[in-house]
Amino acid sequence: MTAQTPPTPPFRDPQLPIAKRIDDLLSRLTLDEKTAFLHQFTPAVERLGIAAFRTGQEALHGVAWMGPATVFPQAVGLGATWNTDLVRRVGDAVSKEVRAMRARDDRVGLNVWSPTVNLLRHPLWGRNEEGYSEDPKLTSAIATAYTHGLRGDHPTYWRTAPVLKHWLAHNNETDRATSSSSVRPRVLHEYDLRAFRETVEAGAVAGVMPAYNLVNGRPNHVSPYLREQLRAWTDEDLLVCSDAGAPSNLVDAEHYFDTHEEATAASLLAGVDSFTDHGTDSSQMIARIKGAYDQGLLSEADIDTAVRRQLSVRFRLGEFDGYDEPGAFDTPEHRALAQEAAEQAIVLLRNDGVLPLAPDTRLAVVGLLADECKLDWYSGTLIHRSTPLEGLYERFGAERVEFAEGVDRVLLRTSTGAFLHVPAADAGDEVRGAEGALDPALLAGRTDLPPLTTDATGTELALVDWGEDLLTLRAPDGRYLSVAEDGCVRAAADQPGGWIVQETFRLEPHEKGHLLRHVGTGRHVCVAADGVKVADENAEVSEPPEIFELVVVERGADAAARVAAEADVVVVVAGNDPHLNGRETEDRTTLALPAHQERLLRAARAANPNTVLALVSAYPYAVDTGPLRAALWTAHAGQAAGTALARVLAGDVSPAGRLPQTWYADDADLPDLLDYDVIGGRQTYLYFEGTPLFPFGHGLSYASFAYADLNSRVGEEALHVSFTVTNTGDVTADEVVQLYTRAADPSVPRPRRALAAHRRVTLTPGEKVTLDFDVPLSELEFWDVAQGRLRLEPGPYDLLVGASSEDIRLRTTAVLDGEPGGPRPVTRHGLNGADFDEQSGAEIVDRTKTAGDAVTAARGRTAELLYRACDFGPGVTEVTVTVAGEGTVEVSLDGGATSVPLSPKAPTSGPYDYVTVAAGLTASGVRDVHLRLRGPLRLAHVGFSG
Known about the structure:
Oligomer: single chain
């Protein structure tokens, strides 16, 4: 007899609907197997032929952490292109490289954690480089393009499965695991949710990752918005992956729950489906899930729901159908695309005619970034590399280009009179992270090179002050001084980097010299018999800190001035190192360019008035460009950065990047980093009333463009807008056409103007194009706190067309019918505390641990709340407040001097133990209600009766 071939299980049958296939597979998995699926590193189920799976492959602007890959411009640079077609092609290339790399290294995952759609609300945020824009419309447009590229174009199977980061209202690294973003309903619905929503609704998103922070007092990993908002936007099963270590934070850092079992159950019930915690060790998370199940906090059905969402993604990736794609890696097309993206990301900030440079220009190239091609935490390892200096050498000829890096060249003399010495060694060409790592934070420093010693002559070191007295020291062979686990100081690192940077130092004045503190360990440098090292934590056995004299051999500003004086034009390349002073875990403290680089810029300008500034940075600076002939900005633009910059400077390409965020003129223009009220705080170009250094959408060209023939028509569901644009210049160039809207007579504060649509078009000299846009009327809605929903207000709306948010060339007005508003029906519904129209001194907090908002006074302040147009009808005689804690609510009408105080008789037992307090209040008709909150009191609701 011949053995029969076992029937194909339904979950392997591609003809069946995915939902039925998942049902079948779930029925075959044991509870223990399903529980194990909830950790980031999902084990194989060999009896069913199911492979291991992991969530989370970083791919923000190329495949990250897994070794060599094509490196595209940083995300903020992709945002600066304002080119959705380009960004889709970049996403497509990245997803092909993911597939190709996975074919030779199964550590590479297909569930990619990108893009980041957090809005660039505050330019001091350390992770500014990861976002696309301060504007939700532009952010969602770029993110949608990138996710469609990542998803691929197969009608059934996804090439990769993108997860959006970081849900929600996350723009600070300072106390990021414990701080709470106070987000009023209007800001929530009109700003923070919008970028996520429009990207998810576009249909190429597999999931989201909650952020570390809390929103309105509740951790994002137990956010009710995951269910109420996110999952309502699509019929697809979305996979919610926790951020690394965030599940433990719920207990350990945030103290929001008493036990890890309670926290794990709460986050899973809120919608978290995959737990990223304890690295590859899943045992602790599995034990917590099992503990929650045993305690009755979770049911098997709850676990099934989360597993179903992961399986849905895996089915879409084709895993159970044997689907695969060969992908493509480092192809000529990818290299050309990296250069195209780098060129399109460059923004010309100002130009008095010095650019483009003439072919025979003699150049001086100056600056700390001039011969660098910097990477960031979410970069791959460079295969190809082009610095600005190399690009200019190639474009103009090395004989026409002189270079001065501008570092200070120093010796460090010890108290004995000897100098620090870097021993000769063959450091090779080892590059940090080239071998790939699932967690690059665990990469250790090199210990195979000899530690520094001292001798009579010493080694000249290149010193750079990156701002705030944060120094790097580099040996003549290009290696940075670094400290490894054994505490020795070596010239060992190709670049500063790592989760905890080991290549930075501070000079601290001490007696007649300086102590040299190593920032990564916090310890001072000492000189021991076996070499230079950082002091041991055990002071009894450690050498005493060395007192150094800083001997300056040459100041960088002098070298910069020397080469600048001999050139026709000076190009100063300034900016930041993405691993220092503004990065993940560290916010910036100022918009100012670091003093070392300001000195270089001033020295170059003093020596030669024909000075051009090229800023290469992950964020805006407040730098005075008035005395300069020209200024440009680009994000760290990846492997082709130098070639791209040189081609723009030479006029081979006309610049057409546009600023994706406001460049403020001064730190005084900025709100507090933790002030998330973009409306009340008048933040971003939407509400900012000052004069920016450069406005949102700004960017110049080597061509000129004329706008004309504006027409608009109001349809049933959209505004139809058309106009013409003509290239009136003498070079082919791109123009980024921007359409803004503005409510002309709003009943509440609305944006000064808001981007409604844009398009990047290429025009030859004299070419004219007609552009048509349809703006959905729904995009003109605002969140009506009186009705708790979006509403289109009737009245006039300005349509503004131009080359930036401030450079408006055409305008007209359309009148929309909309839906009239009305006073708040407070006798029926009362007032939810968080539904105020205006506030000062208030914070929104969680009403309960699972849902709802309350309001409290910020620490040390009295909260003032205003609720406009409250309709008391024929009259009320009583007011009630639902409160927890201790303190007083004072109620007054129309800002009158007389107020009604209400206080609980005694402090409540906890922040969620609410009581209702009543007092007499006589009111009728439509009045404004003013509340004043004093003390640590939470206000959930105000009611009126009688």
